[in-house]
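[Automated response] Your request has been received and processed.

Submitted sequence:
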Amino acid sequence: MHILLLGGSPETLLWDRGPEGSWDVVVCADGGYNLALKWGIEPDWIIGDGDSTFVPYPEHIKQEKYPARKDATDCELAIDKAVELGASQVTLVGFLGGRLDHTLANILGIARRHEVRCVFEEKWGRVFFAEKSNDIFGKKGDLLSLIPVGGKCEGVTTWGLEYPLKSETLHPFSTRGISNVFLGDSCSVTVETGELLVVHLRSGVE
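Generated structure:
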């Protein structure tokens, strides 16, 4: 099951049309309902404390309300809901940008979610943790950065990028994997061990 999660990033509200794709279930994390309204998406669930929306939640939409003072962010609660609903893949939109602490927590929070495939999607690109083998589609000139998180990543190999890596080790706190360049419309990345964060930046997007 593919679930779309919508968050409340103010930068994402500048995106006119939103991501392309189809989803089985749509879950809004609090202010994510603002995105749903803008893009004409009818959510199945709304999760959160209700302090970041422009209008009250409609009563006909399923809701799980939480107090503003809680031990988890709306993003974490929304992913928990997606897993509870049986998601195998989750696309998160509107969770990067705004407060840096929330952005970092949202990105690092999906590293432990091995039971579900999580991908952040924004107008400017996408962010996800690599699987063993990854085919990434874009266009010539796009940028791709590979960032080890929590320890070194071993056996990193790339195809279709300007600066190839061949069974190399990327170490944390090093910028070795930053700003590689698509040679065509796609590239591939494989990694043998470690948590490797992939940041795909689309060229020509402001």
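Summary generated for your ticket: The CA atoms of residues 6 and 32 lie 4 Å apart. The chain has two domains: 2-123, 133-201.
If you did not submit this request, please reply to this message.
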